[in-house]
Amino acid sequence: MRKEESLVEHLDWPLFITFMVMLVTGMATLYSVAYDDLHPAIYDVSMMYGKQLIWIVVSLFLGLIVFLIDSDIYRRFAFPIYGFTLLLLVIVLFMPAVHGARAWIGIGSMGIQPAEFAKISTALLLAKYISGISVKQQNISSVMTASAILLVPMALILLQPDAGTFVVFTSFLFVMYREGLTFDPIILSFVNSIPGVRFKETWVGSHFIPILFVMIFISVITLLLNSVQLDFFFLPFTVSGSIGVISTLLIFSILSILFLQRFSAKRERTRGTVIIVLGFILTSGLSFIVDNGFNSLATHQKDRIELFLGLREDPNGKDYNRNRAMAAVGSGGLLGKGYNKASVSSVESNHVPESETDFIFCPFAEEWGFVGIIFLFGLYLFMLIRIILIAERQRSIFNRVYAYCVGMILFYHFAINIGMNIGFAPVIGIPLPFFSYGGSSMMSFCMMMFILLKLDSQRKDVLR
Amino acid sequence: MNFDIRRYVILAFIILVGFLYTFRLFYMQVVDDTWTLRAHEVAEKRIEITPPRGVVFDRNGMKIVSNRTYFNLMMVEDEIKHLDTAAFAKLIGWTVKDVRNRFKEIVKGEGTYYNKITGKRTSNYQKIRKYPFLKELTLEEISSIAPHLENFPGFYEKVTSMRNYPFKSGANIMGYLSEVNREEVESDRFYRPGDNIGRSGIEKFYERELRGRKGIKYIVTSALNNAIEPFADGKYDTTARQADPLKLGLDMIIQSYGEKLMKNKKGCIVAIEPSTGEILAMVSAPSYDPNMLVGKRNISENYPKLALDKNMPLFPRPLQAEYPPGSIFKLVQSLIGMQEGVITENSGFPCDKSMVGCHNHPSARNVAEAVQYSCNPYYYAVVRRIIQQGKKKRLFADAEYGLNKWHRYMTSFGLGKTLDADVSGQRPGLIPDAKYYDKWYGHHQWAFSTIRSISIGQGEVKLTPLHMANIAAIIANKGWYFVPHFVKSIGRKGPLVEYRTKKRTMVNAKHFWPVIEGMRRVVNENGGTARMARLEDIMICGKTGTVQNPHGEDHSVFIAFAPMNKPKIAIAVFVENAGFGGTWAAPIASLMIEKYIKRKITDKEKEKRILEAKLAYISTPGQ
Questions:
Q1: Considering its fold, how many domains does chain B have in total?
Q2: Domain ranges, ordered by start, for chain A
Q3: Range of B475's domain?
Q4: Rounded distance, CA B538 to CA A391, Å?
Q5: Which range among A99-113, A172-186, B229-243, B471-485 has the greatest average pLDDT?
Q6: φ and ψ at B483, to 5 degrees?
């Protein structure tokens, strides 16, 4: 009885409520997008919404179990759990392919995707490993071990092949970065092998991961906008995509400098300004180089890159998804078309394929418009920031690392999934957490959240 | 080492992405409407319902242009499954290669467009849309194909309509339709690729009146192109409306009769109702069956044949053939002479053949006799007086003054300019003025003696048969005319306003009497040149002409109106290479007049002679 009370008492209600609101919103969106006049009941299990409802109930039941079990077992059994999912990832490779990928265990719609659960087990093992090493031990071997924990499931997932989940696994690099497990030791060993050089650390090495991601992010956006002429309503002319990227960066830099001047301490001001100016020069330079470099490539090389980015397609042919998705999103307007009124992205009209799974953001954006987007982004940002706050208040490194893992996985899913609906990310199939139709992803995201909530509720029991 | 600061890097990432995405979505959803338009394009389908074209009646209320049902064989590539090309080719009577080529042709025919988003040229062809695989199948053709279509999923039949000309005549009047070209689609939003547009004749001139109003239905469609629901509950839909029928002044009975008479001859007949300016008949020979140019299949088969025919059946002679008028021009010369006061109706001139030849007849003692005898020397004298009036001291300046005055008279008769009838492609003919001769001979380098052949309608003067018929109408009206036109009424509206205003010539009504008297004698008196045109009970007034033709046999021409006292019809007949005007043109005109007024022919011998005459070696296509 005491335990029950403490759960209610120590549960992070803001996060829990956000989580539940998201489940309800997601369910409502799916009901709208897949609605069929002949099967109006939301619990009709012959329909997607009926099935999704079952998955949610199962997930909540699993969540209850998670709440009842002592959280210590995750730390203790992290390795067996990891091993078990690896085994599943191997078994799945011998399963028949569905849509060209061997991602499912089981038959038909009742199958599960081990890759979804591998995210949790990897997060747990990573948390356990990082919590077990001290700061002083952060050397090449610890970096390599942590990387290996990621690389093994990643390799197996790539064999399926499932590019989307593979990319999501790189979110753990951010967690390693937060914990100081960077690639600096490796870079140092190279740099210090030059006679006469003796660095204790390199800035680039320590911040290798965020720098890398900023570079990738800017390059991808530049490439996606490479052949697009942006037409701003307040400008009498169109601007090319790379100019658009650079001017956006400029606006951000100026805004952050103004922010800095207003709110930061005097000592920080000069340093911060220099960093922002340098950052702007480097990022816009990168964007410029990528843009021009791409234009100077031979046609077949261009084709290959465009193929990877999902650009090498025509709107009625293969680029169907992106083009239709963006049309659906864009047509939402300020206030949207209203609930159950998505004319482009409903399952019935089927203009946006996969609008119930990977492209479920489309019907939401179409039905609720920009106002709905603000609400949704508010939920997401609140959830992510809340998770980071929760992570930072943990006494145990295990809990903190796990919380960061959950936060970064969700961030990745939100960023890439929504990005591909608005032309900011290549079309790689990953679900939108709590929205997309699908049992495995629903259960895995819910489990992830429930374990986090449980760990957090017991944070005071843990001494380490 | 403390890494706590790094949480802010991660938070910054999250917030940055959040802001970037918000801005992007604000731009996509609120600012830029490219995507909204794209969504309309994708999800809403505009279905156009093209109404059947307006029908056309003649003055007797007979439907002379109607529509007939045809079928298109449509295909949707996405729905085609396991197509047995050989069996399909056999069904439609094609070779396998033809079928394959047709698929490629359809894709190619759709063209490409510049996609703003991907920056590439992309085909407009969509696998999920319907395209006509075969067009314009007749009921017989589709009924042998349709029962087997269930074996070929992805192919459908679709009803369409095309023109039908039950009388098989009047091709030069009605014109024909053909598919719009790209410029027409781009310049007029009414048309979509595959629509038909009037290419010539009435069909072209009254395109806007005949095409009607398209019905437009907006529906929300699925990606498979299935209609889901009407868009906005049909708020923006409009219903298709067929155009009001056109009623022509044309009399289909004499039109077809005229075409029959002109068989195996080259030339034309133009008949006008003088009191209204309505064109009763406009025969262009040789002609063709207008049904030969209905639909893409017929056009591609027959048009080249007609276009390459050396007798030029597509050439609208009544409007475009510019002939010297010959002796019929003397009528106008007499009128101008009297109005100018250089002669009176009783002026006589000796028929001395010193300057120009003439046939044997007594000297004309007055205008009526001059018309009756068609005396060449008489008109030399008359036109010399018109041109050289002695108003200027120098001979050349005097000729310039006189010719310009003469030119103004001619213009008031509608000559030397297009008449602006409601058919496209009219030619102006030629009435020379001083400037014209200045160009040839130099300023003040010419006088009447240089240009005298215009007096008898030869030389530089050129008129179209429509002009000639209009002269007859003006004389019948004694000095005025309505611009000749076909359309009597459009729905409940009368003819276009430009055909409701009387045009007056510069000649007084009183001067017409002696000319009319002369014309009466031409047909009805002994010694008249058109005795063969005479009818017992209808008083025809006419004038023959024989147009000198340096390339061969002279052209035979005759203009007339009848009855004399209350003219109902004015007519011009022009038969190429037929010799003397009285021999061929006059009897043809007479038959036409009789047919129009009495609806029957009394002199069967005369009719037989004309019908059997072969005045040109013509292989009449399609008839």
A1: 2
A2: 2-181+356-457
A3: 252-612
A4: 115
A5: B471-485
A6: -60, 125
| A434-460: pLDDT as tens digits | 999 888 899 999 999 999 999 998 887
Cβ pair B25:A373 closer than 8 A: yes
ipTM of the complex in this document: 0.86
Which of B42, B76, B113 should we substitute to test contact with A (largest number of A Cβ atoms within 10 Å)? B42
B87 at the A interface (CB within 8 A)? no
* pLDDT single digits (tens) A192-222: 777 777 777 667 777 778 888 888 888 887 8
Same domain, B324 and B448: yes
User: Which pLDDT does position A61 carry in this prediction?
Assistant: 94
CB within 8 Å: A344 and B43: yes
B341-345 average pLDDT score: 89
Q: Do A227 and B22 touch (CB under 8 A)?
A: no
- What is the count of residue pairs from A and B with beta carbons less than 8 Å apart? 162
Q: Which residue of B has its CA nearest to A179?
A: B3
B5 touches chain A (CB under 8 A): no
Q: Using an 8 Å Cβ cutoff, are A208 and A187 in contact?
A: yes
> How far is the C-alpha of A22 from the C-alpha of B460, rounded, in Å?
92
In what order do the strands lie in the sheet containing B227-230? Answer: B44-49, B215-221, B227-230
CB proximity B111 to A under 8 Å: no
Check CB contact under 8 Å for A327 and B7: no
Record: contact A231-B44, CB cut-off 8 A: no
Among A200-209, A414-423, B169-178, B500-509, the least confident range: A200-209
Separation in Å, CA B456 to CA B117, B371, B379, B446: 72, 11, 7, 18
Q: Residue B620: pLDDT band by 50, 70, 90 thresholds?
A: very low
For residue A211, the chain B residue with the least C-alpha distance is: B9
Q: Which of A228, A348, A351 sits opposite B117 (nearest CB)?
A: A228
- In terms of DSSP H, where are the helices of B413-511? 434-441, 448-451, 465-477
What residues of B are in contact with residue A374 (Cβ under 8 Å)? 22
Contact: B7, A329; criterion CB under 8 Å: no
Report the CATH number that the domain containing residue B319 is assigned in CATH.
3.40.710.10
Check A327 against B39: CB less than 8 A apart: yes
Partners of residue B34 in chain A, C-beta under 8 Å: 231, 330
Q: Is residue A135 predicted with pLDDT exceeding 80?
A: no
Distance CA B374, CA B519 (A): 10
**Stronger pLDDT, B171 or A236, i.e. the higher one:** B171
Test mutation, A174, A294, A320, A370, chain B, max B CBs within 10 A: A370
Query: Binning pLDDT at 50, 70 and 90, where does residue A464 land?
Result: very low
Going by C-alpha positions, the residue among B356, B413, B396, B415 that lies closest to residue B380 is B356
SS3 call for B481:
strand
Q: Is residue B114 included in any domain, yes or no?
A: yes
pLDDT at A283 over 70: yes
Select from B133, B166, B199 the last residue of a domain.
B166
